[in-house]
Amino acid sequence: MVWIHSDTGLYSVAGGVEHLRSNSTEPWWASIIWKKAIHPRLSGMACKIFQKRVPFDNEIQKWDVQLASRCYLCHKEVEDLNHIIWECNVSIDMWKWLSESFDALFEFNGFRQAMDKFNNAGSFIRDIWQAGVIATMVEIWKWSRYPRKFCW
After folding, report:
1. Is residue 152 part of a domain?
2. pLDDT of the chain along its 152 residues, tens only?
3. Record's InterPro entries (predicted)?
4. Among the listed residues 88, 82, 77, the one whose alpha carbon sits nearest the alpha carbon of residue 111
5. Alpha-carbon distance 27 to 92, whole Å?
6. pTM of the predicted protein model
């Protein structure tokens, strides 16, 4: 058997990884979350959220696991990524707080819109805003997993 993706015809793990890496397309959000201005721990957690590698009830139910789903923040809706991060009343309050901290209006309902909000601002303000959006998204997810009293 010959490995056609190498000059020698021999398979190596490094060659296999390089082949997979070169053939895969980078997700649209990867260049946004992996920036110098954003702490790697936040970027890693945001990456897991985007890849749906964090537990949400609707994802767990897809595996035929029976459970009663409820948002731990508002106690009203079914728990899923979009509700927890963007639609829940508690998360909307957090997004409003972040927007007001930047003296801006809360007029976005998704990650791409939020990240584009300060595209025309200077690089310093834009980087701080984007770090704030990612940190807020990660913290909202953490709060939904580990409910506790809010401090704001």
Report:
1. no
2. 777 777 788 888 888 778 777 766 788 888 889 999 899 999 999 999 888 888 776 676 667 777 777 777 888 887 788 888 999 999 999 999 999 999 988 888 899 899 888 888 898 999 999 999 999 999 998 887 766 555 54
3. RVT-Znf
4. 82
5. 26
6. 0.75
